[in-house]
Batch of 2 targets.
Target 1
Amino acid sequence: MQRGHPSQYCRLNLHVPVLVIYFDGESDLRPDFRLSRLTVAHLIQLLRSPLDHGWGHDLEVLVFLFWMASATSYRVVSRAFAIPRSTVHDIIHRVTEKVLRLKNRLIFFPSADQLQTTGAGFERLAGSAAFARVVGSIDGCHIRIKPPSADAQCYFNRKLFHSIQLQAVCDHQCQFLDIFVGYPGSVHDARVLKNSPLYVKKLYPPEGFQILGDGGYPCTSEPLALITPYREPVRNPVEARFNRHHAKARSVIERAFGIMKARWRSIFFKALEVKPQFAVKVIACCAILHNLCQKDGDILEPVEEALGPDDGGDPVQPDLACGERLRGRIAAAVSAPVNNPPALQDHDY
């Protein structure tokens, strides 16, 4: 019999505390599994296959979520569920692969019809109609890991800890539209971007639309329109006004990261003690489950320590031939009067 097959634990003691909480049908699951009961049921249904029978499949999902929620050792999970440690290992890796297969169902770009709604959302966030063509906000996030045995120096970032990077684009409602995971912490945000499919394959945004980023990114119009703030100190009130509105809209990605970190605190606020290759998959699962929760209305308030720019490093040099001109047009639109001043209302010359 294959190790970790559900039939090996189909007669488990249902009186262990974590299973009592689940099977009583009433208890709040968030303390132990970080998802609401509705979202847990939805995830179980999404991951179920025709080959899954009985409640063995449910148990596997619960084991996986319990480990994600606590980021603890397999030994601790084994004791919590009264199943062998080797089985816990197999379950966690198996369910991780299943969750990864949900990526394109839960993380995707808006359709052409949805772009206008997304743009309107960023217009509201910015408080300016000049941002009506903005359809995303991009940033990077460092996830702390245990120093790997090989190439540890590559993972040592400017904040003086070992990490793996997550680059993400989100919409105005904190839902991720794209994720790119795996670069070691020593790599600058701009380099991560330029090696990501988003940039290389010109995946998003569509022509005529823009995404917002912080000063760690280049201000570009090709191969994608990425608008960053003016470097401080600004030179005039137009640039200052643009930066204020830009920050209001761009910060939605910080909120998205903050919500995700609040849910998976054990993963994001202590070193993830798995191999880097598996850590990449775990981080991607966090983002996928974040979107599932957002869609199901399973909302958590972001943690305060995650609200704030994840400084991408030294600002990149401006490229006057590309995004600077586009940014200048948006900045001018931000400062343009909404209504004609009284001196211009009585004539048309």
Target 2
Amino acid sequence: MSSRFACLRTARLAARYPLRRRYATAASDFVRIVEVGPRDGLQNEKQSIPVATKIELVNKLAQTGLKTIEAGSFVSPKWTPQMANSSQILEYLLETPPATPHPITYQWLLPNVKGLDNFLSAWQAKAGGDSGYPTPPPSPGSGATSGTNGSGAGANAHEISIFTAATEAFTQKNTNCSIAESLQRFEPIMARAKEAGLNVRAYISVALGCPYEGPNVDPHKVAELAVSLLEMGADEISVADTTGMGTAPKTAELLKTLSAAGIEKNDLALHFHDTYGQALVNSLVSLEHGIRTFDSAVAGLGGCPFSPGATGNVASEDLVHCFHSLGLKTGVDIEKLSEVGEWISYEIGRSNESRAGKATMAQIRKKAA
């Protein structure tokens, strides 16, 4: 009986004094934020946004402490007209990179070889030299820097991103091909990117729910895709909850499945949309599983033209505020980031979806009053 009472007493104490979760440790207290606002955030906006506004957005974001910014995409303007002037943004960043105290990695999404050709054509025109190829960039998350243009702190880097999806229906709608065909399309892109010294990021869309096949996407299919992309040469996999259907249990199951498939945590980024208000919850679950790279968009910009009903990305301000409250470091100045969120929301005539951003701006105004 005494052992029984001892067990009951232990249970009561555990309930009364729960162990505090520790997200920050000496080895893993830095979280890398990949700002996707200029591309994923703006691509679904209906009104045409001037290229000068897009360039100013990138410039402003570069002053906040962010070290990775997705600046545009080389996709068909027929399908994504908002991204039609990405080559001008690339040319500007090559000619006049923002003056920052640290190097920045700029990412460029492309769907096929033609997109790569367009990217390299713009690159060669401004930074190619004899070969037309840049110096190899650093690995994601590393402190190394490389490239041909940059601020006084070192050279900026540019890398490309490709994308497929975890369901056949979404892949057909998004890229007009099967999953297997999308992987075949990537092979020459990977080969030429490696020859050019470019890192390649690979997105897996609808990993936690599909608008056409429903909310229960098989996590083993996501893991198989991730393994295939890494074996093909991808440097990082961004696992995307494109629809925002993800929940804490489903996120945990997916991450356990990815780990069981042998995929290392430092090869992964998580990309959450906030359609059902679960993005921060899912981010915390991901933190508990050791993920330290997250995609987000300033002011919660975003949506997906091929995912009906999906709302914006998790707001960068909300994510940074949450991580800082846990003792984690991002290197991002929340006040500067909040100012950018308010500015771009006004510029494009939409509401600011970041609660932390709006609260921070209220505090800034209070101090200035």
